[in-house]
Every structure is written in structure tokens, then in C-alpha cells.
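Q: Sequence in, structure out?
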Amino acid sequence: MTPHLRAALAIIWLAGGIAAYIYSQQLTIPARIAVPVAVAFLAEISLYAALNASFWTPARLWISSLASYLIYSIPTGQFSLPNLALLAAITGIAILWMRYVPAGLAPDLLFLGLFAALYIAKVPQAIFAEPGPKVQTPALAQLLCFRLLVGLLLRYRTHADLGFGFIPTRADWRIGLRYFLYFAPIAAAGVYLLELRAFRLATGIWWRAPLTFIGILWVVALGEEFLFRGLLLHRLRALMPPTPALAVASLAFGAVHLWFPPFPNWKFVILASAAGVFYGLAYLEARTVRAAMVAHALTVTAWRTFLA
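A: Exactly. Output:
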């Protein structure tokens, strides 16, 4: 374990523990539930932060995929042997698929489709049942899914244009910010014309916006950009010119937002597809998913800040 990783883990557990305590106190969550759930979240975040380490064998990746479920479910009384078996089967099949099925557009698209179908059907979220009101254990399932996908891509689908990293470079920030600014007026016009939401600032904007940005950057944006730009767009570019490849990848990215409430949310599909074009352009220029995830995180943060 490198000194940088040790420092990162120390910060995660210190800051995360304080945040978990404050959150549980504000929502009056009992300690018997708050403590194991907080430990499970911090363990999952720590494993996520260590994804770039060299010790991730398939067996270790599979065993670690069960860790957060066991940590939170046994003390809170939510443990279920069928749920554990289902989680072990899903994660095991995903690892075996990526390890033994040769890389290519068709198998990778099928893998992505099957994984997306399980996620949209909320199978992982159902496994991580909430032990009490406002205890966001389904978010733990989401974090696990992103960690597993990123870990598999890093091990079995690494290529020169992937550009994995939690910390964007100066060039990544510059390119990501530029494409976010390009998309911002289009997004504003789309929100207005499609009547998606009314303009309304989020309460506690001074602290919500930075936390939202960090959470989206390192979890949602990193995972989704790995899938749709680092995997899908990369595969499509090998078969067709960049413009149609970008269009197809962006439409696929938009399509997964169809399930956003209210279903079917065609308006959000249109806006998300347009956003996907700009995320893809950032990726193509920088040749790294880090620039795309900056543009992605800035867009989602602006959405949640100004259209609360």
C-alpha cells in the first residue's frame, strides 16, 4: 500500500465517520443501525479508492464484492442467505465474463446490456434492503456496482485512451470545463423547451454543491464515463468514423435515462443524449475518461444546484 493510498484511506475514515455521525444524529438513526451501515459505506469507499492497486486478483475482487453486504446486513438483521447467494452469483458471473469472453463490441455490449438490465430492475438495490427509514443502503449497492465495473474494466479492458484516475490533470480540468460551458446554454434551452424543471436554487447551496460535485465526480461520473466512453465509444471507434460512433454512444447513454421517473422519461433521454455528445467530445479530445467525468460532474452538479 502506497503512502498516498494510506493517507487517502485515513481521510476517508476520519471525514466519513464524522459525516456519518452528523447524518445519523440529524435523522435520529439508532446506533445499532447507523454504525454497521457507516462501516459498510466506508469499507466500500476504501475498496473503491484502492482500485488502481496491483493486488486485485479475480478472487479478491469477487470476495470483496460481498464484504459491504455482510458488514451491514448481519448486525442490522437484514442478512438473507438467498440474497447473499444472488449477489455472489451476479458478481461472479460478471467477473468470469470479463475474464474469459474475448473483448469486442458485441460481447461488451451484451455484458453492458445485461448489467444495465439488472441495475434498472433494481436487483442489486433490492439485495441491500434498508434496515430503517432514510437509511440509504441501496446507494451502497450502487457504489458496489460502479466499483465492480470499474475494477473489471481496469483489469480486462484497459487501453491507451482509458485514462483511469480519481484526480484529473490540469488538461482534464480545462477540457472538461470547456465542454461543460459549451453544453450549459444548450442544457438551459433544453430544460426550458422540454419543461423539465423550474429554476430553483438548492437550499444549503454553499455546502451541497461541493459535496455533490465530489460524489458525482468519483462515483457516478467515473463509472458511467468508463462504460459509455471508455468502453462503448472506444469499441465503436474501431468500427466506424468518430462522428457516428459518438452519436451512437451518446444515444445509448441517453437511453439508460428512460427509466428516470416518471417512466418513460423521453424528455430526459433527449437531454441526456445531448449531454453525452459533449462528454464524448471531451473524451475524444483528451483521450481520457477523466476529462469526460469532469464535464459530467459539473453538469449534474449544476442540475442539482440550480434546478433543485
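The mean pLDDT is 89.
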